[in-house]
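testing teh design pipeline on a random one, pls ignore if ur not involved
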């Protein structure tokens, strides 16, 4: 999320979009502090202990006044319910640390490391009702040769994510995808 904000405010992504709001479901989320430091409006709805459908209806109500063209997920670790999916269908974007056709879930880099893969990919996709099952917009390769630890795999993957996600978003928002 920090890389996206930086690329909007200081890089090419700012030519095709603006960040209207950074939202989190955890008041301790690092992204909220980063957004505040950069002067970006923030909001938080605590999800812990709440019914998912009720929470997502409240989320849609919170987002509605912003008239958002897209929701860009970055570090948001909850499945969205139909209340959000239906309201923003084909306008919710996420990044996944694996080929989403081969592995779904949050531990994509661990999966690649444990499989001993020489390379993996990061996938930018539209969000649907499933976990990492939406239409793929783009993928970028992550070279894992010589990566001797999970932390090295994660470091390499995140380096690709931080460049690639913003580039794909710029293409999407400019109408190139």
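output:
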């Amino acid at each position: 999320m920090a890389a996206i904000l930086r690329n909007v405010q200081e890089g090419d992504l700012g030519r095709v979009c603006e960040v209207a709001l950074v939202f989190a479901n955890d008041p301790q989320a690092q992204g909220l502090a980063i957004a505040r430091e950069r002067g970006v409006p923030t909001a938080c709805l605590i999800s812990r202990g709440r019914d998912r459908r009720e929470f997502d209806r409240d989320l849609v109500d919170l987002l509605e006044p912003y008239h958002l063209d897209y929701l860009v997920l970055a570090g948001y670790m909850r499945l969205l319910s139909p209340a959000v999916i239906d309201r923003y269908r084909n306008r919710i974007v996420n990044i996944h640390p694996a080929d989403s056709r081969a592995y779904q879930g949050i531990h994509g880099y661990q999966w690649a490391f444990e499989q001993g893969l020489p390379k993996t990919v990061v996938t930018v996709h539209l969000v649907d009702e499933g976990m990492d099952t939406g239409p793929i917009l783009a993928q970028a390769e992550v070279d894992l040769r010589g990566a001797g630890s999970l932390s090295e795999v994660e470091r390499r993957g995140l380096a690709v994510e931080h460049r690639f996600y913003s580039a794909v978003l710029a293409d999407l928002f400019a109408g190139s995808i």
